[in-house]
Amino acid sequence: MFEKQIRIPSAEEIIAERPVPPALAKIKRERDKSAIDVITGKSDKLLVIIGPCSAHEPAPVMEYVRRLGALNERVADKLVLIPRIYTAKPRTRGVGYKGMFSQPDPEHKEDTLKGIRTIRSLLLSAIEESGLTAADEMLYPENYAYVEDLLTYVAIGARSSENQMHRLVASGIELPVGIKNPMSGSIPVLINSIFAAQSPQVFKYHNFQVATTGNPYAHAVLRGRVDNYGNDFPNYHYETVMQTLDSYAFSEGELKNPAIIIDANHSNSGKKFKQQIRIVEEVLENRRRDSDFRRIVKGFMVESFLVEGCQKHDEVFGKSITDPCLGWEDTERLIYEIAEKA
Fold first, then answer.
1. What whole-number distance in Å separates Cα of residue 155 and Cα of residue 109?
2. Is residue 191 part of a domain?
3. Domain-embedded: residue 228
4. Of 151, 172, 174, 141, whose CA–CA distance to 20 is shortest?
5. pLDDT (0 to 100) of residue 95
6. Sequence-ordered list of residues with C-beta below 8 angstroms from that of 45, at least 6 positions apart, any chain
7. Is 0.90 topped by the overall pTM?
8. Which residues are CB-neighbours of 163 under 8 A, at least 6 positions away?
């Protein structure tokens, strides 16, 4: 049984309540182009999608983004920094906390309408105070319409990459969409997902039949795999990255803009968050040694926050309430290292 609780206005109604001011829209256009240029190879900068596992509360997220914005001014010639403001991050089993979109206060009950308005306010404030536009994970495809005018990068998670609706909606997004390999680690499935996202599609979306032209900026994100017993296996090493490059090549030109982003956490690190530093360093070294590896690997995803580790409840300001993250000191050093070796 479904109990109707709150009527949610349409995306058009919500956006009309607080549209993006022209000055911020200009920043977004410039940021979108910078990210697209990396994926297409027009720019040799690296994308670094970095931030907390889950944006569970606006104040620490804004403090993090302000710091990242100040750091961006020092590395902008080498990197395109994109803060992770992931607002629909659920617990692994899908029960309990489901992210800011559903639960703007993690200690209180769900309030989706308040969550949507909180997110738009947060994303607008982030642009205004840091000059940075954000990345979010498209966990629920229908929700993307509420923030489509505010993001520069969209991620599709490992548990969603085989879902047809995620692939269809990705085909209508005019931004880089990073599609993670499925939990099984199957690269053919990943390549099929990218192909679907890059292809024109017709489907039902927000009470309309819509047609898309395909998204040429959809690309691969390698996050490691999990076996049938829950064991983690990485896929950021040289051999597995080059196998993914071969899979792109086997598509015989059907896929545009071959690109790989390395997710330094999740099954690549076994969720041992400090290992993200070592993983990034190894990938940077492989980029230095091999021109093909360098050409295909366009950047990193890193989970970090103000305070390292994680906590069960929102008690320590700027500490993750989902997966453990790097702290700010390690984050700052890592960003400088990536810029130096990019």
1. 26
2. yes
3. yes
4. 151
5. 67
6. 34, 37, 38, 77, 78, 79, 80, 342
7. yes
8. none
> Could you give the dihedral angle defined by the CA atoms of residues 238, 242, 243 and 247, in that order, rounded to the nearest 10 degrees?
160
Quote the CA–CA distance of 120 and 134 in Å, as a whole number. Answer: 11
DSSP conformation letters of 106-164: TTS---HHHHHHHHHHHHHHHHHHHS--EEEE-SSGGGGGGTTTTEEEEEE-TTTTT-H
H-run or E-run covering 230: none
Per the structure, the complete domain to which residue 323 belongs is given by 20-341
At 143, list the tokens: 């929700």
Cα separations (Å) of 140 from 9, 157, 164, 203, 208?
16, 11, 12, 16, 17
CATH number at residue 281: 3.20.20.70
Which contiguous run of DSSP H or E holds residue 42?
none
DSSP state of 105: S
Residue 6 lies in a domain: no
Per-residue pLDDT tens digits of the chain, which is 342 residues long: 999 998 999 999 999 999 999 999 999 999 999 999 999 999 999 999 999 999 999 999 999 999 999 999 999 999 999 999 999 876 556 667 788 888 888 878 889 999 999 999 999 999 999 999 999 999 999 999 999 999 999 999 999 999 999 999 999 999 999 999 999 999 999 999 999 999 999 999 999 999 999 999 999 999 999 999 999 999 999 999 999 999 998 876 789 999 999 999 999 999 999 999 999 999 999 999 999 999 999 999 999 999 999 998 889 999 999 999 999 999 999 999 999 999
CB 179 within 8 A of CB 190: yes
CB atoms within 10 A of CB 10: 12
Q: How many domains does the chain have?
A: 1
Residue 235: closest CA among 268, 259, 270: 268
Residue with tokens 């920043």: 27
Residue 57 is which amino acid?
Answer: E
Residue 310 lies in a domain: yes
Q: How far is CA 12 from CA 18, 138, 338, in A?
A: 10, 18, 39
